[in-house]
UniProtKB/TrEMBL annotation:
Name of the protein: Class I SAM-dependent methyltransferase
Coiled coil regions in record: none
Pfam assignment, any one: Methyltransf_12
Organism taxonomic ancestry: Bacteria, Pseudomonadati, Pseudomonadota, Alphaproteobacteria, Acetobacterales
BP term (GO), one: methylation
Length: 417
């Protein structure tokens, strides 16, 4: 077993006292918490390139599963779509396990295995290999994030991949200032409930000049209950990664970034219209371009990335193959098509930042026929039969893919076999 340092012991006590995020199993009847990473459609697309058969069982690991958001989401999606396999929840917190197990029971999910333990001990637990590993909100709390990511990478099956989330610095402006204040007012040696009470008092007294009061994108201390407040402002170890720092961490573990989610957010051309600035940005490599977008936007509080093993072949996605099946992530094609603006521009918003995405003329006709079951060839034939020319249909299909894949909304579904 790993030997905890003082901050690690405090982390363990924190998540035992306040499983994160705060969840109530009774709410499972009302909603399924959805997000990234580890949405099944995203895994099929970004990790497996829409080529791994849906009939092939998926062995997934939630490393640092906490109160179960990712575990429940993936297990439920696999159950709903009739996908075979198992999701292994791994965490040190007995209290978090109770919450996650209650949520699974409320949904009558039978494809989850609950395993106590630390991800740092994975190589000795004999649980892997796994086709997919989720590590969401964990690496930035470890004493050695590189060792943690390397431990996870060692458990990946050939052709497998990962979904991770780490904190990003610019969108968390104000957080670390109040953490510094609370290190003085509420020392880590005190009991968690006492520290929470002091943090609440401080937040009420924090003047309007405090940067966190000016940061509308961080709300855990307001909407996340005691668990959210503790995790944000009282966490004993919390570091953030810029895009280049994240890229170096990933490469050091023998992995590569397949996608930063959403890709559109990391493209500086989404925000820059000045031709001279665009020309300068065009000369940058992909990581530098993503870093530029991060720096000029200022609102990214997290980075979500899908990773594959560097030694494996690069993932390609069969957008040009008529047999591939497009799917809209949490969108209904006909409804989206009916709601398109006459000017063909789709407005999207990322944490308060609005971006106008131009869509091709035939976007509505194509989107109206995307149902997650119909292959591209059949969709395009129907669009042509309705009056479009074959050349126009082909061009607009490619343009629609370019626009909506970058939003993480138009993906390739897993083939049936």
């Amino acid at each position: 077993m790993t030997a905890p340092d003082p901050a690690d012991a405090q982390l363990a006590a924190q998540y035992e006292a306040y499983p994160y995020p705060a969840r109530d199993a009774r709410e499972e009847a009302k909603r399924l918490v959805l997000g990234s990473p580890s949405h099944l459609r995203e895994i099929d697309h970004w990790v497996f390139g829409g080529r791994r058969p849906a009939s092939q069982p998926l062995r997934a690991l939630m490393a640092g599963g906490g109160s179960g958001d990712g575990t429940i989401m993936l297990a439920q999606q696999m159950t709903t779509l009739g996908r075979a396999g198992q999701v292994t929840w791994l965490d040190r917190s007995a209290h978090a396990r109770q919450v996650a197990e209650a949520r699974a029971a409320a949904r009558k999910l039978t494809n989850i295995r609950f395993q106590p333990g630390s991800l740092l001990d994975l190589p000795g637990l004999g649980l892997g290999p796994f086709d997919y590993i989720d590590c969401c909100g964990v690496l930035h709390h470890l004493p050695d994030p590189a060792a943690g990511l390397a431990a996870l990478a060692s458990q990946l099956a050939p052709g497998g991949g990962m979904g991770i989330m780490v904190y990003a610095p610019h969108g968390r402006t104000g957080v670390y200032m109040l953490q510094d204040a609370l290190h003085l007012l509420a020392p880590a040696a005190e009991a968690p409930p006492a520290r929470v009470e002091l943090a609440k008092r401080l937040w009420k007294q924090t003047p309007e000049t405090a940067w966190l009061r000016k940061n509308p994108w961080i709300t855990d201390h307001i909407k996340g209950g005691d668990a959210g407040l503790y995790d944000l402002l009282l966490n004993p170890r919390d570091r953030a990664f810029t895009v280049p720092e994240l890229a170096a961490l990933v490469a050091g573990a023998g992995l590569r970034i397949e996608a930063l989610v959403e890709p559109l957010r990391y493209d500086p051309d989404s925000y820059l219209t000045d031709p001279k600035l665009r020309a300068r940005a065009a000369g940058l490599d992909p990581i530098a371009r993503a870093a530029l977008a991060e720096a000029i936007c200022g609102n990214m509080g997290i980075h979500i990335a899908y990773l594959t093993r560097a030694e494996d072949p690069e993932v390609t996605r069969p957008w040009a193959e008529d047999s591939s099946i497009p799917v809209l992530r949490e969108l209904d094609g006909p409804t989206l098509a009916r709601g398109l603006r006459p000017d063909g521009v789709l407005p999207v918003s990322f944490d308060g930042l609005r971006v106008a995405v131009p869509l091709p003329r035939l976007a509505g006709a194509i989107l109206a026929r995307i149902d997650g079951r119909t292959p591209w060839g059949e969709i395009i034939r129907a669009v042509i039969a309705a009056g479009a020319s074959p050349d126009q249909a082909a061009r607009d299909r490619a343009a629609l893919v370019h626009a909506m894949e970058r939003m993480n909304r138009l993906l390739i579904a897993a083939p049936l076999s």
